[in-house]
Amino acid sequence: MSIDVKNVSFCYNRGTPLQKLALDNISFSINKGEFVLIGGEVGSGKSTLLRHFNGLLKPHSGSVTVSGINTRDSKVRSKVGLLMQYPQKQLFGKTVYEDVSFGPSNFGSKGEALGKQVNDALNLVGLSEDISVLSPFSLSGGQMRLVALAGVFSMEPEYLVLDEPTSGLDPENRSSLLSILGKLHSSGISIVVVSHQICELLPFAEKVLILKKGRIDFIGTPKEYLRSAPSSLPEITSLMKELQSAGFNVRDDIYSVDHAFLEINNALKEIGDKQHG
Ligand SMILES: Nc1ncnc2c1ncn2[C@@H]1O[C@H](COP(=O)(O)OP(=O)(O)OP(=O)(O)O)[C@@H](O)[C@H]1O
Ligand SMILES: [Mg+2]
After folding, report:
1. Ligand found nearest the CA of 22
2. By alpha-carbon position, which residue is closest to atom 18 of ligand 1?
3. Tally of domains in the chain
């Protein structure tokens, strides 16, 4: 089971003088349970690609299938939860409850079970249940993003597809969102995240895909990405490189603080053993 993108091209304003080729013959797969990080410069086609995963946009040539279902079939909508880049575009309800309950109620949930799904989703993103009676448009930008996220989580999708989920959040909400994503991923959900902050998500990712002008510029593991992009290294990787060139026996393909801690600890132990031995 996977999302399979095969030779996908997509044009905005097709057949008009404003025609713009946003995706240019893209092919790749997202395996079930995989954590995929998508990056690339402004206007490279990231959001356009994401909107193909749940059929919001249909390719002009090529195909996208989710667990074997073509995205031209509306059944894919229950499998893929999409958080759009701008939460204002996603929210529509008179109340937060109406918004967060929309997905599950469309798929048949009602009554107490529905209320529980809404509350669980709000709690998951760190929002109080009291907020459910408010208009989503009376909230701050960060709170709106969290409500939109709760709406996506409440559908309990097989694939979570998130466009810049941490943008506009304070450091506390950012790190709690990252830990939620880590937990959901460990529970077997596939996660696809678009971010301009590749470094903060690299420790979670299994696959990195970088778009450039509507084409795939890079696809590979985080380690391969670090080797291919030496100019945009995470701070922790740069630190390991500096320690290595200062003579410490540490690896330089590390991008998470936990791994760096272990690596430095081992190097210090080795030095201690040599001094005592
Ligand atoms: N609704 C639209 N109508 C016409 N052109 C569009 C539309 N949306 C996007 N485009 C164009 O398609 C290209 C890809 O846009 P897209 O929004 O997918 O980029 P992105 O990588 O998500 O950028 P960003 O990092 O700014 O979010 C851009 O050149 C953009 O101008
Ligand atoms: Mg975008």
Report:
1. 1
2. 45
3. 2
